[in-house]
Amino acid sequence: MQRQQGLGFAAALVGGATLVGPYLMPEWLMGLVVILSALILWHFFDTKYLTYTFCTLAALYGTGLLPFFVFATTLAMLVLGELVFQTGADDLNTYLYYIISTAWAGVLVMAYLQERAILTVIFGIIAAVLLKVILLRYEDSLVIEGIGIAMTMWLIQELNYQADLQMIIAAVIVGFTFGYFAFRAKTADLSGLFSAALVGIILLVFAAPQGPQWFLIMLTFFILGSSATKYKFEYKKRIGVEQGQSGARGYRNVFANGIIAAAAAVLFGVFQQPLFVVMYVGCVATAAADTLASEIGVTGGIPRLITTLKKVPIGTNGGITVTGETVALFGGFVVSVVAMLLQVITPQMMVICTLAGFVGTNIDSLVGATLENKGFLGNAGTNLLATLGGGIFAVVLYLILASRGLA
Length: 407
Hints:
The protein has 407 residues and is mainly alpha-helical. 75% of the residues lie in helices and 1% in strands. The radius of gyration is 23 Å and the shape is globular.
């Protein structure tokens, strides 16, 4: 009860700060008021971590590092979201209520401050729910959640990217539908659901008007990857090399394979340069090629270490097989052909991206044989470097060929 009452008073504090904030200047004075009020709450109620969060965000606002809209919206999302989790369980329905409550918080602040920052609020909501599902079991996670939400909204607002409202709504619907069906099909867990939704929304919004085509390219990877994960799953489980959680992938896997591609989509949205198109398809081709090489190649017999070509046990990081190399080339080719058929890239770019997928896969093997086997990186870090390497290779090859009039 004390915790619930503390959140109630915290909600009142946020409401009051939002109402008077635009009129209480300079910013450091408003920040000081919020800090002192949060400390008083901690004294009377069990709100230690909420107080830490309020003080951190108030300090950022008071020193001019956060706009008031971002500051107020983040506080409102945090408080209303915590109220939901006081009585809810760690299940999909609770996260649905959490999304509704944070969305309501964003709408109220937007309406009062007369801000039209729908895209900023949407990304804040996604950051909030994603951080919540990842960090829920950690009691002291609120500070990270608060800073994560605030920095995400600040970044989107600073980009000042203009998107059509109908496109934003469609992107949210498609993104979350995609994530939901992945969750229901048990190819993604809850964190995978929300991270996949985030990547999908980024693609649809920033790659407009070709957002749907870019999304379909990523969907091609997802279908190929899911099929490869299920391929001979019982055999892979028997020898201990199966994807964890019965093949369901979490946020680490989604971000490792998709975050560089999503960054390429944002860069394309801002700068409208074709090299970011090539980078995007090259990253996705690498993710598809590497997933097929890992999930199918592991069934292709005794692998050889890429650095020495000596035989190693099945499942060894950096181990390659003829089967794995073949399906890697096939995976990158399929993604690149789909991108070409969707008129996102040219036939010349298709060849570049197919090669990028194959090269990126072998970068993964090389990093796995060196850094990952020595404990410097985990699997997610290796995948991230591989997709980055594939994307960079695609850009460099494209620039070389373009300078000679061949691309």
